[in-house]
Amino acid sequence: MAGARKNAPPREEVLAAAMGMIAERGLEKLTMAALGHEVGMSSGHLLYYFHSKDELLLQTLEWSEGRLGAERGRLLTRTAATARERLDAYIDLYVPEGHRDPHWTLWLEVWNRSQNADEEARDRQAAIEGVWHRDLVALIAEGVSRGEFRPVDPDRFAARLRALLDGFSIHVAIGLRGTDRAQVLGHVREFIAERLLADS
Predict the structure, then answer these.
(1) Does the pLDDT at position 8 exceed 80?
(2) How many CA atoms lie within 13 Å of 100's alpha carbon, on the beta-carbon side?
(3) Is the model's pTM score more than 0.85?
(4) Quick count: other Cβ atoms within 10 Å of Cβ 49?
(5) Cα separation, 143 vs 139, whole angstroms
(6) Band of the pLDDT at 200, cuts 50, 70, 90?
(7) How many Å is the Cα radius of gyration of the chain?
(8) pLDDT tens, 25-48?
């Protein structure tokens, strides 16, 4: 067992492989056996590292969110961009690329499984949600202070905007007809223009 663990691929490689399988084959094809075959490990070794498929999925989501978080940070710290431009970039990053977007497919599965998750797993999921919320609150507060946005309560507006984004994003990710990415972005930008942008 110790020798097998020594030769096991790094955890990040396993998580990247899991995400790649979701993108290429869909979540239903991601089994411990299939992932083990992909990375040259037995399903038993994978269970040693991750304990359950639920834990594998949550760690894969955390890994994927870490990559998205770095991109979000880069977009939101562009000093030359207006708050509105950075808000548009945030929304572009949030909304799925299209039907069966792998990141959103994974999110939906983790949300579904969270009904039976323990408190520690729920806390980790809430932490992922929390960074998206805090970044949005800070961006709205900055836009309000600069006079780009109306004098809204940043926390309340961010909560409502994220609920709107989540609802539309689920529609895009599951391929609901009449709600493709372009249409959703149009709806969200119209909402922003009506509710948030300061009168010029």
Answers:
(1) no
(2) 9
(3) yes
(4) 14
(5) 6
(6) low
(7) 19
(8) 888 888 898 999 999 988 888 888
